[in-house]
Amino acid sequence: VIAELKRELAARDLAAEAETAIKECRFKSANALIDQLPGGQKATELRQRLANGRAHEATTKSLYDSGRALLKAGKSAEAIGQFKEAKAHTHCARLATTIDAAIARAEAWARDRGLHDQAMAAIRGCRFKEAKALIGKIGQEPARAAAQAAFDQAAASEKRTNALFKEGNAFYKDGKYQIALDKLGAARDNTACTRYRSRIDQALATVRAAAEQSRTPAAPTDAARSICRDSLPGSVPYMQETGSFECGCADPMVINRA
User: Fold this and answer.
1) Which residue of 94, 132, 133, 242 has the fewest CB atoms within a 10 Å radius of its CB?
2) CB neighbour burial string for 194-220, b if at least 16 within 10 angstroms, e if fewer
3) Given a cut of 50, is residue 254 above it in pLDDT?
4) Are the beta carbons of 248 and 227 closer than 8 angstroms?
5) Residue 74 phi/psi, 5° resolution?
6) Running DSSP on this structure, what letter comes out for residue 38?
């Protein structure tokens, strides 16, 4: 009799522990406790409650996972809605705490979204100093990571633009106008910045003018006319691209070299 009473008390304690584990959503522990119970109505009831609890929280997890996916996709408002639905659905205090943390992250992302959009607008406008300051104020991922990635890509591209522009300017100063035009053209094609493009267009116009001028023969100087007149009366000077000149008849078909 005493042994039977002890078995009943032990079974009662196991059942109570299993009930607590189910309420706390410690489903694995609850299942292990139920396995230790002798067969009977109580064990059957607990197994059914365990199955119901698992099914119920599987729905909670599905809602929570959906919220996480939406947040990762940058849809903070939709994510918050899913998290709140999961919070209202769950019976587990531990999971509710996890969901509360997710809601806080999503709300922070929503607050940071404005900063993110401002930073992206600054990047598109090539206002890199402003963009960098805005990115520094973004507190949450993935908003900060997305803006930083866009910043890094744009900055690298415009660094190449600047390098091409400097190369073009150097060739222009050396009188290598065609190479300068090629470099400046490449810089213009590369840039995404309107204000950079305007500056490059001005440089291109300057180089084209210099190139055109270099191809136009210089006008004869008074000194050249005097030399030709003295050395070959009736002749006129014909200026060469090298800066020198040749004296010839006024008829360009007949040229007498001085």
Assistant:
1) 242
2) eebbeebeebbeebeeebeeeeeeeee
3) no
4) no
5) 85, 10
6) P
